[in-house]
């Protein structure tokens, strides 16, 4: 799913080593199973619970699955926010009971639970090895432990492009055609350099909306950002992290950032002004831009098939099966079905969540999508291309999300002129180190 609550960031006892298509007969499901996972449903009525947050777009799919499996009743527990969902999951995980049969986890915090993989079903025992080629390899890697356990099936992703204001580019004497714009941003250095040229021509507008969101895009491309592969907090030992910080705070010093706190009222309203010209732009953000900019932005915004440094991802989720589930076979089967290419296309069509399954990219409903609001940009093909360009498999440690919040908060203070960069960096290192050590001692 797309990030919720702004910057964005959860989780059985019968184990049978059998493939997905044979689960019902080999593992004792209700009735026989065909190659599509449909079964005869001669067994007793089973209620499956699934815990999600905000909007996954699954309601129609639940009814479809129930029609195919008359002995299954699906009950969704939808938390209003990601924070509420995490609180419920952590409480029930600590209590040893109360988790749903399927727990959704967003990409930014699944790493907390990879460290607790023994609390979740290893989906390889339910056919994951036969299914994993469905997804982009980096999506599978995000739910795989160092020793190879797969605890989640991928839902959507957030491949990133660059959204830009054609009218402001024209005012600055920059190309406006999206193919020419794409040539401007081969890496982050060229992105910032073009921004400085833009500021010289259009001093009244910033180059991008927020230092924090730009940091998020850049930091996500580092193979190691906060943690070593051995889950040791790197902090000041990581020169690439400091280099990224320095690039972003230099951008703020040069006036490239509009200094807008993401998801704030000021940020929302800025889309109806000439406050900034570009932003790192996952596919789901197009709807945010359109909603915030309204008629003012129609025809002004466009999307370039490029992302500095190659590819980036912001957003997406997984479906996991806790070991607390009394019916892991049926839960794993439902999770696999909900995340299959056919279902991902349906969700994409309904709520715009971009698929993580490779076969979905050949579906005309995905690859042929055009967005009239963004000058008829071929957004389907653009984001298919962007998804295939995400090649890095960043290692994220058990408190990666919390540590990133520390650095983001520090950067926000710099962006808003509340703290000098060096002091903010030092404070962030201290707080992040405490968070990492708390994890080790707790």
UniProtKB/TrEMBL annotation:
InterPro entries: Bact_solute-bd_prot1 (IPR050490), SBP (IPR006059). Residues 1-26 form the signal peptide. The keyword RNA-binding does not apply. It comes from the Bacteria. The keyword Signal applies. Keywords: Signal. Pfam families: SBP_bac_8. This is Extracellular solute-binding protein. It comes from Kribbella pittospori.
């Amino acid at each position: 799913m797309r990030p919720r609550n702004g910057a964005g960031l959860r989780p059985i006892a019968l184990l049978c080593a059998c493939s997905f298509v044979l689960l019902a007969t080999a593992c004792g499901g209700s009735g026989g199973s065909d190659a599509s996972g449909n079964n005869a449903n001669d067994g007793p009525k089973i209620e499956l619970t699934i815990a999600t947050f905000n909007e996954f777009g699954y309601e129609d799919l639940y009814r479809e699955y129930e029609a195919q499996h008359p002995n299954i009743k699906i009950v969704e527990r939808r938390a209003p926010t990601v924070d509420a969902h995490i609180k419920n999951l952590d409480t029930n995980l600590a209590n040893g009971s109360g988790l749903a049969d399927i727990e959704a986890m967003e990409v930014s915090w699944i790493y907390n639970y990879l460290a607790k993989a023994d609390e979740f079903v290893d989906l390889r025992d339910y056919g994951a090895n036969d299914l994993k080629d469905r997804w982009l390899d980096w999506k599978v890697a995000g739910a795989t432990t160092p020793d190879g356990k797969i605890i989640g099936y991928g839902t959507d992703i957030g491949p990133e492009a660059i959204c830009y204001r054609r009218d402001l580019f024209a005012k600055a004497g920059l190309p406006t055609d999206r193919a020419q714009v794409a040539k401007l941003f081969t890496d982050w250095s060229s992105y910032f350099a073009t921004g400085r040229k833009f500021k010289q021509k259009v001093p009244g507008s910033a180059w991008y909306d927020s230092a924090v969101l730009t940091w998020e895009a850049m930091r996500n491309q580092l193979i190691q950002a906060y943690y070593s592969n051995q889950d040791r907090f790197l902090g000041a030992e990581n020169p690439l992290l400091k280099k990224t910080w320095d690039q972003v705070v230099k951008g703020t010093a040069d006036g490239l950032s509009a200094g807008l706190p993401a998801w704030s009222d000021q940020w929302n309203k800025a889309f109806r002004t000439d406050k900034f010209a570009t932003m790192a732009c996952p596919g789901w953000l197009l709807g945010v831009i359109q909603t915030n900019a309204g008629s003012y932005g129609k025809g002004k915004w466009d999307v370039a098939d490029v992302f500095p440094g190659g590819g980036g991802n912001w957003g997406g989720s997984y479906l996991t099966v806790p070991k607390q589930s009394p019916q892991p076979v049926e839960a794993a089967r439902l999770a696999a079905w909900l995340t299959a290419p056919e279902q991902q296309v349906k969700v994409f069509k309904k709520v715009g969540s971009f698929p993580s399954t490779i076969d979905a990219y050949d579906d005309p409903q995905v690859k042929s999508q055009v967005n009239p609001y963004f000058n008829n940009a071929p957004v389907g093909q653009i984001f298919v291309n962007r998804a295939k360009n995400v090649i890095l498999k960043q290692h994220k440690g058990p408190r990666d999300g919390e540590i990133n919040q520390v650095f983001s908060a520090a950067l926000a203070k710099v962006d808003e002129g509340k703290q000098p960069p060096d002091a903010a960096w030092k404070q962030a290192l201290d707080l992040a180190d405490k968070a990492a050590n708390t994890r080790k001692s707790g």
